[in-house]
């Protein structure tokens, strides 16, 4: 049996299939998860929904995982080819005890993984992952007699649920890009169903991802969407990731709008109808949420929290927030807009509602926000076993520089937030972030200036300089 312990990440599991985990390892993961679910629910035969994404090996992996679950006594209900939000929705719709979605999301081909959850609308947090790792690696499995049931046509139940709640009364022409990932058999149909005119881009399923990985933070994917938007004179462009829980947005002029800015626009729009609402945003998000005029006028509060779909989901749940937004494109809508989990297609629907409510072009709506200058999310290589130590070092270093009054581009560091890595803010509201990636051997770097591209670069250079001194940093995936 092969199962690399590093595959147990902060809030899901990811491995390179066959190199880091084999079929027996997957089967044991199923036994570990089944044992955990039974221990948590105190039921001998809990019902577990499973689904899989469109990678060539995902169905085989799901079968091995399901066999492991069944051997502990779980009754597995298989909804088939899925995006993650469909499996999350199934837990509510079918009232199951837990879920397990076989996906490596936007990771390159060869990767596999599982997103899992027990409490409705939530996925595993670090404590649950540590517990699962312990049960699985130490083979402390329960033994029982479970069952397997196929749930046919559940895809249509999920699609119709989103369509019937979200009809729009204005024709929006939308480019829908899926990077040949699983969202291709969901997003176009749903957006057509609510009333959009849809131009499909790479929506046919192809697990080899012939053009680029389905990742709405990837500049190559964003550039392809921008071209399609301009060529088709579309009102908006949407890009979905491999398992459909994230969405990227391009305006009608072909400009990429970072997801945190989209989140702020949606929050503003929602705050007009939902006064005194709470919003949760991750530490990679724009500093504009903090003192936004419209949110303040509507009595709304914004809380900055740990990056990661599981962390934000839980915080949204705990604070009874109306919505949560992550810079990576995970958006979370709580009742009455959703069930609290991240659904990229529901996010696109909320953007359509924004355009309808404001009755303006997307480029005009974005102009209502103050201009800031943001870097994309950049990921320099850093070994899994070293990345958290490097971040701890950076936390100490930045605090020391603040205490000494060291300036970055003539600006004092006025605040250091350490809820997730280190986010330092400057006098003019500009900021920089260094944190460890939760699902790859890399760090995550983001910077934003309220003044200029030049000043944004200065913040990045300051961060890069600190990191290079550690000697633990490899190449960046992309750089400004």
Descriptive account of the structure:
The chain has 480 residues and is an alpha/beta fold. It has helices at residues 23-41, 58-72, 84-93, 126-137, 154-165, 187-194, 219-231, 259-271, 293-297, 309-319, 344-358, 362-366, 384-404, 453-468, and strands at residues 13-16, 47-52, 75-81, 98-102, 111-117, 147-150, 173-177, 197-201, 236-240, 247-251, 256-257, 278-282, 301-305, 323-325, 331-333, 373-374, 407-408, 411-417, 422-426, 431-436, 443-449. It has three domains: 5-152, Alpha-D-Glucose-1,6-Bisphosphate, Chain A, domain 3, CATH 3.40.120.10; 154-370, Alpha-D-Glucose-1,6-Bisphosphate, subunit A, domain 3 (Alpha-D-Glucose-1,6-Bisphosphate, Chain A, domain 3, 3-Layer(aba) Sandwich); 373-468, Alpha-D-phosphohexomutase, C-terminal domain (TATA-Binding Protein, 2-Layer Sandwich), CATH 3.30.310. It is built from 14 helices and 21 strands. It is globular and about 65 Å long. The model has no long low-confidence stretch (mean pLDDT 96).
Mean residue pLDDT: 96
Mind telling me which CATH architecture of the largest domain this is? 3-Layer(aba) Sandwich
Overall 3D form: globular
Helix count equals 14
How are the strands of the largest sheet arranged?
1-5-4-2-3-6
| CATH uppermost class of the largest domain | Alpha Beta
Structural class: alpha/beta
List low-pLDDT spans. Answer: none
Number of strands: 21
């Amino acid at each position: 049996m092969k199962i690399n312990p590093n595959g147990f990440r902060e809030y899901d599991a990811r491995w390179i299939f066959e190199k880091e985990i084999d079929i027996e390892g997957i089967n044991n993961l199923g036994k570990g998860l089944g044992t955990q679910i039974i221990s948590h629910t105190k039921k001998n035969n809990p019902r577990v929904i499973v689904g899989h994404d469109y990678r060539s090996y995902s169905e085989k992996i799901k079968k091995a995982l399901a066999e492991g679950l069944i051997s502990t006594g779980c009754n597995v209900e298989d909804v088939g080819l899925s995006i993650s939000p469909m499996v999350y929705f199934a837990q509510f719709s079918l009232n199951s005890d837990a879920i397990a979605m076989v996906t490596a999301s936007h990771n390159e081909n060869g990767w596999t993984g599982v997103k899992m959850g027990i409490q409705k609308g939530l996925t595993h947090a670090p404590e649950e992952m540590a517990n699962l790792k312990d049960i699985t690696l130490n083979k402390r499995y329960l033994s029982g007699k479970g069952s397997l049931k196929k749930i046919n046509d559940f895809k249509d139940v999920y699609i119709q649920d989103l369509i019937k709640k979200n009809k729009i009364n204005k024709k929006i022409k939308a480019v829908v890009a899926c990077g040949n990932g699983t969202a291709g058999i969901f997003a176009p149909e749903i957006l057509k169903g609510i009333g959009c005119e849809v131009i499909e881009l790479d929506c046919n399923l192809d697990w080899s991802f012939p053009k680029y990985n389905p990742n709405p933070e990837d500049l190559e994917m964003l550039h392809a969407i921008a071209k399609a938007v301009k060529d088709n004179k579309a009102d908006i462009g949407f890009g979905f990731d491999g398992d459909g829980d994230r969405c990227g947005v391009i305006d009608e002029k072909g400009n990429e709008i970072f997801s945190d800015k989209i989140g702020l626009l949606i929050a503003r729009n929602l705050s007009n109808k939902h006064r005194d609402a709470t919003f949760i945003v991750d530490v990679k998000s724009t500093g504009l949420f903090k003192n936004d005029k419209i949110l303040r006028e509507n009595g709304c509060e914004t809380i900055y929290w740990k990056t990661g779909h599981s962390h934000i989901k839980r915080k949204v749940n705990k604070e009874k927030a109306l919505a949560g937004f992550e810079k990576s494109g995970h958006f979370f809508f709580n009742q009455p807009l959703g069930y609290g989990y991240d659904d990229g297609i529901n996010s696109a629907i909320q953007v359509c509602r924004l355009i309808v409510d404001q009755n303006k072009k997307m480029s005009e709506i974005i102009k209502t926000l103050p201009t800031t200058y943001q870097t994309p999310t950049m990921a320099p290589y850093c070994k899994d076993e070293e990345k958290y130590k490097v971040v701890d070092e950076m936390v100490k270093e930045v605090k020391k520089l603040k205490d000494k009054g060291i300036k970055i581009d003539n600006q004092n560091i006025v605040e250091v937030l350490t809820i997730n890595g280190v986010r330092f803010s400057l006098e003019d509201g500009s900021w920089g972030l260094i944190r460890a990636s939760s699902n790859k051997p890399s760090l995550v770097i983001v910077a934003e200036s309220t003044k200029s591209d030049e000043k944004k670069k200065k913040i990045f250079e300051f961060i890069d300089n600190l990191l290079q001194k550690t000697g633990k940093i490899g190449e960046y995936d992309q750089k400004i």
